[in-house]
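FORM 12-B: Structure-to-Sequence Request
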């Protein structure tokens, strides 16, 4: 059986037509299927109209009352689905209903686990040309190149084998459930060309905030796909911002409390290390929150002190044996020291401070 998931928000002008189209297609193609409308309590009464189908047809309507969101609605649909294959389609008639057999056939024949409708392969495209929309879509697709081979990663039209979904932990962040599933579930994917039609009725719900959410979602998926690289990037972001804390404390103590700069530097170091520890624990390392605060902190301070020694040590070696003491070479020596210390601090943090060793 096929479960067709239809997420809706304010689709009062489209819901009747799309459900009727889907039912007609199921009958014509002789496909056993159910339609699950997941509505986010649309104020325009979309759900009430969808309810009109439930007595006579294999249609069910689920109304989510809080926490609006396209991905969340689709995930709810997955939970409710009884079929072996789930198909997700927009309710605004943008996605071609007649492509459904082509979307589900390869999965049923076990040629792949997932199909995605694509505008960017041979045979696909846009029904009505909109330059802005196409540029935004192309750019969004480009940004996802590092995590997926999909030609149209922002597509919302997909079909997937149900057991793949069951095994996954889906993050309902953002709008791009297709990308989420494709990246995390690692299914075998086949792309199906589609002509994407602009909605004729109602308004798109994806505004500026959706674009921001998309970037946040991408960031999460990149972190998921390249955990060590992105952990290191986060670690460096924290480190660089920690440098500002360090300098701010230093300046404050020297200017306002008249400390000797060398003495003030000790407090600046402590402030920066504390700041770095707090943010690395909360943000850089996913397991950070499971770390005992105090023992983790002490070990982090120790790692940083060793790191500082490495920094000075590398600098010392370069000056002594590579004669890098003349301007501007000593700056390069210092930078190489900082790079070595950063790598050491990162490895020490990853494999010691934020490891199982200090779990609560
Ligand atoms: N339940 C629920 N909750 N459904 C929602 C919500 C929500 O918060 N927001 C939107 N939807 C439903 C709409 O009712 C529609 O059926 C579908 O999700 C797509 O929303 P549109 O408002 O039509 O978005 P779009 O046309 O800008 O975006 C479409 O095109 C993109 C590619 O250009 C969607 O298909 C995206 O998934 C797709 O990536
Ligand atoms: Mn749309």
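FORM 12-B RESPONSE
SEQUENCE OUT:
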């Amino acid at each position: 059986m096929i479960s067709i998931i239809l997420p809706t928000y304010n689709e009062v002008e489209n819901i009747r037509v799309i459900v009727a189209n889907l039912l007609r297609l199921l009958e014509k193609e002789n496909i056993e299927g159910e339609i699950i409308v997941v509505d986010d309590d649309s104020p325009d009464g979309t759900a009430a109209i969808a309810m009109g189908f439930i007595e006579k047809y294999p249609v069910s309507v689920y109304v989510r009352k809080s926490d609006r969101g396209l991905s969340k609605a689709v995930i709810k649909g997955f939970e409710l689905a009884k079929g072996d294959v789930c198909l997700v389609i927009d309710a605004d008639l943008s996605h071609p209903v007649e492509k459904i057999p082509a979307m589900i056939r390869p999965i049923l024949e076990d040629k792949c686990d997932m199909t995605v409708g694509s505008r960017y392969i041979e045979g696909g495209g846009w029904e009505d040309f909109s330059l802005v929309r196409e540029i935004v879509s192309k750019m969004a697709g480009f940004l996802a190149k590092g995590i997926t081979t999909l030609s149209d990663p922002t597509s919302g039209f997909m079909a997937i084998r149900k057991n793949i979904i069951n095994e996954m932990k889906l993050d309902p962040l953002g709008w791009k459930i297709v990308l989420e599933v494709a990246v995390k579930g690692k299914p075998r994917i086949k792309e199906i060309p589609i002509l994407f039609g602009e909605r004729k009725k109602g308004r798109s719900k994806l505004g500026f905030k959706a674009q921001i959410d998309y970037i946040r979602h991408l960031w999460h998926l990149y972190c998921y796909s390249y955990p060590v690289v992105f952990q290191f990037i986060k670690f460096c972001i924290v480190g660089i911002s920690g440098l500002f804390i360090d300098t701010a404390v230093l300046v404050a103590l020297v200017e306002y409390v008249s400390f000797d700069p060398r003495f003030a530097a000790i407090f600046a170091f402590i402030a920066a290390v504390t700041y770095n520890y707090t943010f690395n624990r909360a943000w850089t390392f996913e397991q950070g929150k499971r770390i005992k605060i105090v023992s983790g902190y002490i070990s982090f301070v120790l790692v940083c002190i060793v790191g500082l020694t490495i920094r000075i040590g590398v600098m010392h070696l370069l000056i002594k044996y590579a004669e890098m003491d003349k301007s501007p070479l000593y700056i390069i020596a210092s930078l190489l020291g900082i790079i070595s210390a950063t790598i050491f601090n990162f490895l020490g943090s990853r494999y010691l401070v934020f490891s199982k060793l200090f779990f609560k």
